[in-house]
Design brief:
The structure holds 2 protein chains of 2 kinds. By secondary structure, chain A is of the alpha+beta class. Chain A is 13% helix and 21% strand. Chain A is built from 2 helices and 5 strands; from the N terminus they run ββαβαββ. The model of chain B has no long low-confidence stretch (mean pLDDT 96). The two termini of chain B are 43 Å apart. Chain B has a 5-stranded parallel sheet. A 5-stranded parallel sheet of chain B has the order 9-16-10-11-12, covered by helices on one side. A 5-stranded antiparallel sheet of chain B has the order 22-23-26-25-24. Chain B is built from 11 helices and 26 strands. Classes of the chains: A alpha+beta, B alpha/beta.
């Protein structure tokens, strides 16, 4: 199983195993990782599950859909090249380990 | 504050949010979350969408794992019904005789489904969706049947229609009014959804009132407007919800088809707050008292309710928003468009990506967006920060995001 490290804005971090098929948002919720409210529960409707993916990991991820790209325009924290919605990143067999940073604000 | 006992009645989206916000704000007293279901709080929106379709399993519905409740010292009292509130003694009575003392009480009791009340409707083959158990029962049943009749062309009914079509069933929708989702969306959007469902093979009966369900062996005969209209295997009814305000009403709290709260989520008792689907509040965006059934309202009111319990100053003033997933159309609604007198569209329904902006007295009061999240998010921001006229929106249609940030 692949491991994902979630870094908080204050520098603290936790690493968890994410089952194939789960989104990074769901894995964070099920492991009590704070900072990802994900109000719509993964519907790509609220832009409150924003994370910054490490540059080295970006090529491992599925492409941005139009919906996700549009929602990312509206995130509360600054949009950076590594910005993704964690509800839209589903773990696959091939993905391997990832590191993401949670922004300090989601609203 | 350490000796305080805060009791939260109702373990849904609003209930868990009250608890989490209280702990995040440093509340150090005892915190009890009472819920009548046998399981920890879970998300309801997927019950009529991805969960029903089988795309996600049960485990992924839970807001937080068991360990979260232990770590945060939130005591879930599951399978537990509150039967009465004694506001003088500051206690709640639980079914089975136990009593809990409280210093502050939060009511997040949600709603229950409105049931079909026509002849023959009290039948095991008439399904509803409110709880996880309801959705599991329907999902299991769908595996064995072909002909599904859906009564009610609102959000839940139409989401179930989309799911059951994806599962390859014969689907018929009955809506008593003349258009779909008529309570919430404009006529233009109702028409878009009518076409969308028809294109996807759903039979739609508009303006048909069901007056009888007759069971003949394994078949249900549906009678609409006194005539035999359809034979089906199961019925799914999505005809609205009723606020669970009875314990509040019996305790003498002001209610009007929901527990009345102010913009601090306070009820008519200074030690009792309420949040979510069970409440009625004056909404500045609607310009009248409303009872909103939405994740947004549950979460935002819950945060305010928690602040109020702790003596904070937060007020509830967020722009309402809603969403619905049907086939490849994601609907996002911002604001409340009731009473609009003008509208403006951007994009075309034929392209499956468009927005309709609604105005009242020449100011923007909301927008419905289909697969157009940037317009939706921009409208939420605009309505939060300014009053925008129709001309201003029209002039800035190409870049609403920048206009929102001005």
């Amino acid at each position: 199983m692949s491991k994902v490290t979630y870094r908080q804005a204050d520098g603290s971090a936790s690493t968890i195993e994410v089952p194939v098929g789960w989104s990074l948002m769901e894995a964070a919720m099920q492991n009590s990782i704070e900072g990802i409210p994900a109000e719509c529960g993964g519907g790509c409707a609220c832009a409150t599950c924003h994370v910054y993916v490490e540059e080295d990991d970006m090529s491992k991820l599925p492409d941005l859909s139009d919906m996700e790209g549009d929602m990312l325009e509206c995130v509360a924290a600054e949009r950076l090249p590594g910005s993704r919605l964690s509800c839209q990143i589903r773990m696959t067999d091939e993905m391997g380990d990832l590191t993401v940073t949670i922004p300090s604000e989601q609203f | 504050m350490k000796d305080d006992v805060f009791v939260v009645v109702g373990a849904g989206q609003a209930g868990i949010q009250v608890c989490n916000s209280l702990r995040n704000s440093g509340f150090a007293g005892q915190l009890i979350l009472v819920g009548d279901e046998p399981i920890l709080p879970y998300q309801r929106p997927p019950l009529s969408k991805s969960f029903l379709l089988g795309e996600i399993d049960e485990q992924r519905l839970f807001f937080r794992p068991q360990t979260h409740f232990e770590k945060q010292s939130i005591e879930p009292l599951l399978r537990t019904k509150v039967i009465a509130i004694d506001r003088l003694a500051k206690t709640v009575s639980l079914e089975g005789g136990r009593t809990l003392n409280y210093t502050k009480l939060a009511l997040t009791t949600g709603t229950r489904v409105r049931r079909l009340d026509c002849e023959g409707a009290d039948n095991a083959q008439v399904h509803y969706i409110r709880s996880l158990d309801d959705s599991i029962a329907l999902k299991n049943k769908l595996a064995e049947v072909e002909r599904v009749a859906i009564i009610g062309g609102g959000f839940v009914g139409l989401e179930v229609a989309a799911v059951t079509r994806k599962l390859g069933k014969d689907v018929t929708v009955y809506e008593a009014e003349e258009r779909l989702m008529g309570r919430v969306v404009s006529a233009m959007l109702s028409e878009f959804y009518f076409d969308l469902h028809r294109k996807n093979g759903v039979s739609l009966h508009m303006g048909d009132r069901i007056d009888r369900v007759k069971v003949c062996d394994n078949t249900l005969e549906i009678y609409a407007n006194k005539q035999h209209s359809l034979d089906c295997d199961i019925i799914v009814a999505g005809i609205g919800a009723i606020a669970n305000d009875e314990i509040a009403l019996e305790a003498g709290l002001n209610c009007d088809r929901g527990i009345i709260v102010d913009n601090r989520c306070l009820t008519s008792d200074p030690d009792v707050v309420a949040a979510g689907d069970c409440t009625v509040h004056y909404n500045q965006f609607a310009g009248k008292p409303v009872r909103l059934e939405s994740v947004q309202n549950a979460v935002d009111q819950a945060k305010v309710a928690a602040s109020t319990m702790l003596g904070g100053e937060a007020v509830y003033d967020q722009v309402p928003w809603f969403w619905s997933d049907q086939y490849d159309a994601k609907l996002q609604i911002a604001g409340i468009n009731a009473g609009y007198d003008k509208y403006l569209t951007a994009g075309r329904p034929e392209d499956n990506k468009f927005s309709i902006f609604y105005f009242k007295d020449d100011s923007l009061i909301g927008a419905d967006s289909i697969n157009d999240p940037s317009s939706h998010m921009a409208v939420r921001k605009i309505m939060t920060t300014k009053i925008a006229s129709m001309v201003q929106i029209q002039e800035n249609l190409d870049d609403l995001r920048s206009f929102a940030q001005q």
